[in-house]
């Protein structure tokens, strides 16, 4: 495969030219002189979504490997080439059933679909007072034993765990996660700054859907938001649909942390790609209107954001370069999952997981392991 005359978005700069693909990998980057009237498409590294519950009327909690496949088949349309199906707070049995189904699909993945890189376990180890759209009646205290049982059902695929560090047992679990190279992320939390600091010392390295369902910044105790802005040891997830987080708040985050410490996510639920109306999340009815997903009481319940739309928002509304946007959408998640030697940037020898975007950031074509899996 030869991808000709594109603006190639590398990890540190943008160049014009061709990219040659052989045996599923990037074989050569051929730089050429940029034409004067350059309206060529962009070639960007495939997006990696580390926090996504559902899409196309399917959900990671459906406990059905066919549902994971159908979800993965829909994600190629937005340029996502790798993802972590994300579970949510539910009964132990429901979570275990969901994990088993993801593990079954992972063993025999559809080559035309977005790759499953592992699982993101969001909940059930969270604070009732910051549950958001997570069902409170299913919240449990964290223990290493419960987590190990979850990971066994998942065939050791859990790569990221979102939890509240102030809950009894959390610090011990965070230490265990760090020792086992699993990302520990602060989420759905009422923690104060001292607790977050203790969590960081134990191994917290991530902030789940930053600003949302966490202690806000206060000048006497900077809380979780303040800790995130202050400490670049923690990478912040950003749902940039401009509903969960305003443009101004996103600017504050990036001014404090820089693009190297923020990861674009969708946190999308099953209503993505579906018409407006009623949907479902964690057994709760969700109402979709004006691109928003909310519970009956108005609580935001995930998003219906597509990765390429989030990418467009970064460039158009935050004035980021395409290189900076790709750091947030591809480089950072690949690094977080220890996959950057294989994916996440356009480099010779890496997997040819690529997306061609037009000048308005609509997906023209998605390529996974050198194979065209979607064309608009």
Please tag this protein with its features.
21 strands, alpha/beta, 7-stranded mixed sheet
Tell me briefly what this model is.
The chain is built from nine helices and 21 strands. With 376 residues, it is of the alpha/beta class.
Tell me what the structure shows.
With 376 residues, the chain is α/β, with parallel strands linked by helices. The protein has helices at 65-75, 92-107, 144-153, 170-179, 193-202, 223-230, 247-257, 307-318, 322-336; strands spanning 2-9, 14-22, 25-31, 42-45, 47-52, 54-55, 58-59, 80-87, 115-116, 119-122, 158-163, 183-186, 204-207, 235-239, 262-265, 277-281, 284-289, 292-294, 354-357, 363-368, 371-375. The strands form 4 sheets. Strands 5, 8, 9, 10, 11, 12, 13, 14 and 15 form a 9-stranded parallel β-sheet that branches. Strand 6 and strand 7 (58-59) form a beta hairpin. Helix 5 (193-202) crosses helix 6 (223-230). The radius of gyration is 20 Å and the shape is globular. The two termini are 18 Å apart.
